Amino acid sequence: MKRYLITSALPYASGVTHLGNVVGSTLPADIYARYCRLRGRNTLSICGSDEHGVAITIAAEKEGVTPRVVIDRYHEANARALKGLDIDFDLYDRTSNPIHAETAREFFLVWKEKGLLEEKVDDQFYDEDAKMFLPDRYVEGVCPNCSYDKARGDQCDSCGAYYDQLSLRQPRSLITGKTPVVKKTTHWYFRLDAFQDWCEKYIESHAGEWKDNVVQQSRSWLKQGLAPRSATRDMSWGIKVPVDGAEGKVLYVWFEAVLGYISITKQWAALQGTPDAWQDWWKNAETEYTAFLGKDNIVFHTIIFPILLQTHAEEGYILPKNVPANEFLNLEGKKFSKSRNWAIDVLQYLEAFPQAQHKDIARYVLTMNMPETKDSDFTWKDYQARTNNELAAILGNYVNRVMQFTQKNFDGKVPAIPTGYEPGEHEQLLADSIASGLAAVAKNLDDYRFRDAATDAMNIARAANKYFNDKAPWKSIKENQDDCAATMNVCLQTINTLAVVFAPFCPQATAQMQTMLGGPTCTGAPGKGLVGSDVWMSASQHVLQGGEPLGEPVILFTKIENETVEQEIAKLGDVEPVADDTIDIDDFTNVKLRTGVVLEAERIAKSEKLLKLQVDLGTEKRQILAGIAKHYTPEDLVGKTIVVVANLKPAKLMGYESQGMVLAASNADGVLTLVQPGNAEVGPGAEVR
């Protein structure tokens, strides 16, 4: 039986996923997987946390914690965030699991055995102060392609160019800010160049089938020519290189992260108690593999990963059949930026909107704004408009009117179709709309056109509203009760249809509709035993029996008020932009810093913070008041050599004159430490510069 394997780009475990990340890969993957299950297809959808690489170590160093602390925190947070939007995978795992390390090492050793790795001594940036080689993301400088001045060591975020870090102009270490030196180191390079011809044929075989942006970006990469690329890095965090002489080196995340799709499938199989079942998904020609991702990950999934799979071609590894990459989502006309507070992370959204309907609202609005062929924009006004004018006014309104009318006039039970009743013109129009709508939504989903699919689904709800209005059951209940009963039976059957067609987009509303109809819930979620049963195309059939009790009516969607929109917009960008506080050398030389030796120190009455110091500056003695009484006792200070600002205007504090300022450093907890020269022999009066 044909299998449908679905992967979503692995969220990086260094921060909480935001709406831009979700619309790029995880949401479309979930929509497609739910649809596939509803079609009765044997479906496996996997994802997980990408937990190695420099971004993790940088985040850990900033916090003063280990990388493990960072990945554990964000793996849990992102799993919770995705689940909070009903984005459900058969398994959401992580690349720090032993099974992933084992898989990556196996691939590496096969490459070595096949002569696809070259051991090379090459030049790499080295930070002499930090005493470490600098991975690409520890270096910043001027892009050699477009001159962007904050380009990373391997890639420019401005123009998208990839390059060797030594091509970076005016490089600086992100550890110390110093200019790094070039030093020799040994690495193993993967022979990407050996697959140039093969990869060109692979890409061209999908021209016309894949999105144009995917094909063009892949062609652009290949046009530059594939070259050997280092598969190892000088780092302590990651998967250790499994060969002799590789101490202090790990597998480059470029090559091991994509293998996470395979290792997570292995983990899934092991959890099912069938550890070899993963091979049915990755080594079977009957498997159709779709990889969802954002455009910044295209080359990893159209070139890098297929090449890695091709290195094991004799084992029967399959290749992606489609890579429907999305472009970027902007927020209120600007790029997402957490540093500028111009972002909506999923956990923040769920905290602000805890009601179940807002899971569906986010999914629907993001789907209707999905950047399938070009960058798109999320705005709170659009969020309000689509909620009020579509979800509430069309879908929700129809369901509520039908359920309330049936509850009131038919004792909360499905009205039976009267004997001898013949459908009329209105019924035929609705049936045609449902049949064509189901087919249109299905085709669009199979073609990865999610915006069109959601539009067609809402058009079925529009047709249902028209049918209800045209039949006017509020009149026929008084004039022709048989016709009214038949009308309401059709309306309830249509709710069942809508529940199916909206399941990929709005699973919460689907479950509520199905509960109102008195049946079991079926939203296309994992593990519901739908294989072989095409729930989707049978959704046009009338399945409700006359006399069956209905559940209590509930409101699917309530309208969003202007006040809510204004509040959410006001939350954006409330972090003050960092001012340009750089100074030139003349400003700095105007500040006279001198060393001084503390001769005397005493507390000041009625002050918890101030100490009065007598300081020898070499040519004179000064009285300086310092706010360090909570961190140093007077006895601690006598005889210490400190650094003071010597040309500060005198000031009066607590009735005492202070003739300078003592320099101290403060950590995140507010603990002060005096700035002192490293050499105690410096003595008083030395110039600090």
CATH overall fold name of the largest domain: Isoleucyl-tRNA Synthetase, Domain 1
Mean pLDDT: 92
Q: Measured on Cα atoms, how large is the radius of gyration?
A: 32 Å
> Main beta sheet, described?
6 strands, antiparallel
Helix content: 25-40%
> Could you state the oligomeric state of the chains shown?
single chain
Proportion of beta-strand residues: 15-25%
Enumerate the spans where pLDDT stays under 50 for 5 or more consecutive residues.
575-581
What is the number of independent domains? 4
Query: Briefly, what CATH class of the largest domain?
Result: Mainly Alpha
Query: In the CATH hierarchy, what is the superfamily of the largest domain?
Result: Isoleucyl-tRNA Synthetase, Domain 1
Please report the distance between the alpha carbons of the first and last residues.
75 Å
Q: Report the CATH architecture of the largest domain.
A: Orthogonal Bundle
Kindly state the number of beta strands.
Answer: 25
Structural class given helices, strands, pairing? alpha+beta
So how many helices?
21
Shape verdict: globular
Characterization of the model:
By secondary structure, the protein is α+β, with helices and mostly antiparallel strands. The protein folds into 4 domains: 3-95 and 257-292, Rossmann fold, CATH 3.40.50.620; 114-251, Methionyl-trna Synthetase, domain 2 (Beta Complex); 381-564, Isoleucyl-tRNA Synthetase, Domain 1 (Orthogonal Bundle); 585-688, OB fold (Dihydrolipoamide Acetyltransferase, E2P) (Beta Barrel). Helix content is 39%, strand content 17%. It contains 21 helices and 25 strands. α13 (380-409) runs antiparallel to α19 (562-571).
